[in-house]
Amino acid sequence: KEYIEVKLKETLKKDHFYFGEFYAKNRSVNQSDRLKSNNLAVALSESLINDFSNESPNHLFLNGLIKEENIIEADLTWQKISGCFVADKPYQYLLIGNFDSIDSTLTKGSINSNEYSYAYYFIDDVALNELIKNALAEDIGSGDHSTLSTINTNAEGKAILKIKQDGVLAGMDVAEKIFRFVQPDINFAAFKKDGDEMKFGETAFEVSAKVHTILTCERLVLNTMQRMCGIATLTKKYVDKLSGFKTKLLDTRKTTPNFRLLEKAAVIIGGGKNHRFGLYDMIMLKDNHIDYSGGIEKAISNAYDYVQENNLNLKIEVETRSLEDVKKVMHTGKVNIIMLDNFAPEKIVEALKIIDGKYQTEASGGINLENIESYVATGVDYISSGAVIHQAVSLDLSLKASINLTKGGALPV
Q1: Which residues are part of the catalytic machinery?
Q2: ∠ CA(220), CA(132), CA(255), 5° rounding?
Q3: What pTM was estimated for this model as a whole?
Q4: Cα dihedral 343→254→62→304 (10° resolution)
Q5: Angle at the Cα of 118 from the Cα atoms of 29 and 30, rounded to 5 degrees
Q6: N or C: which end of the chain has fewer CB within 10 A?
C-alpha cells in the first residue's frame, strides 16, 4: 500500500462539483499469489500530510472518494477508476491509496509476512520529481559526454540491478520513477519489492529503455537505492530489538539536506515510523527554545497560545532534561508529547510514574543497538534515533547492461 500525494495546480473551490479519474494496477512480483485488495480511492487534504495515525502506524485514515470497491487484480492492464464528488473545503492536495482499515478491505491471495511491516509508505511525487530533476541536473551539467560520444541516441537496451550485499531492499519504486522521469515509456520489470530481504547475487529489477536513459540515470538510481537500502537495513535491526514491546521507533530530522524525503521513506520500509518531517508540521520545544524563552513553563504557554491564535492543527512536544522538568510540564499541561532527553532507563521509569499515562512519551539521546532493549523495557511509547539515518552505511548494488542491444548500438568509427 503506497500513498501518492500531489499538490493540485489550482485549489478546489468549496461546494463545487468535480469529476476525477485515475488508473491503477496491481504491480506483482509473483502474480499468482501476491495480495490483491480493493478500496483504492482518492482523498483530499487542505495541507501536506506527513503524519500517520497513532492507532495504526503507517496507515492513513481519510475520507476516500471515487473508491474502487472491486478487487484490483494483478494483470498487465491499467484499470480506470473514476467518479464525481463535491469539494466541501478548499483542498490543495490530492492523495491516492487505501484509506480504509484492513478489516473493512477485501483481499485475495496470500499475505506475505512482511506485507504489513515494511511496504506502507508514501512519497510526495511533487517533491520527488523536484529532487530527481535537481539531482540529474547536478550530474549531467552540460551533457553526458561519455554517452553522447560513444552510443547512438536511438540505441535501446536492457540493464539489471544486481544485489551485492545482504540487507533490506529499498528504493525500487523510486528507481522506476527516476527512469520514467527521463523516459516515460520504459519497461520496468520488478523481481522483488521494497521491504523484501535481499541476498547477494539476486536480481532486483530489469529495465528496458534507450541506452542513453539507462546510462544517464544509472548513478542517481544506484546512489538513491544504496542509501535507502542501508537505512532500511539498519532500521530493521533496531525495530527487531523492539519485538514484543509496545514501544515504536522514530527517526529524526538529522538527515542529508535535500534527501530527507527518501531517507524517511527508507525508515518506513525498514519498519520504523517517521517523526515530524520538518519544522512546519509539529512544534517541538527543545533545550534552546526553552532557554531562550526563559523557562519550560513559559515556552509551553507561548507555543500553546500561538497554536490557538493561529488555528493550527499542530501537536506540541516538549523536551525535558530532568525529573523536575517533567513535574513542571505536568503542572503546566498544554502539550501532547513529553520527550525524556538523555534520561537513564531507571530515570525514565520514575518519569513515567509521574506522567501516569496522561501524555505520550519519547526517549531520546544516547540510545543505540547495544542498550536499546533496556530503554524499551521501561514502557516508554517511543524511542527516537537519528542513528538509523546518519549512521547507516550504503549497501552495495550495481546496474549491469545486457550485452545484446535491442536496437541501434555504438556510434560508427
Answers
A1: 219, 254, 286, 319, 341
A2: 80
A3: 0.74
A4: 60
A5: 10
A6: C
